[in-house]
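Thread: quick sanity check before group meeting

JM: Hey all, I'm pulling together slides for Thursday and realized we never actually wrote out the predicted structure for the chain we discussed last week. Dropping the sequence here so it's in one place. If anyone has concerns about the input, flag it before I start.
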Amino acid sequence: MFWIYWDTAWSIIISGIMVATIVAHPDAEFAEVRAAKRS
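JM (edit): ok, ran it. Output follows.
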């Protein structure tokens, strides 16, 4: 049961980091997509 708690906690933490990154750098997501298409 403990691993379910940590899995949920990590999902929330990672989602929070992703949202914070996108909010702080709105163009970073698009730059990453363009770089992926070029390679």
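AS: nice. The two ends are 42 Å apart (CA to CA). Helices lie at 2-24, 28-38.
JM: adding both to the slides.
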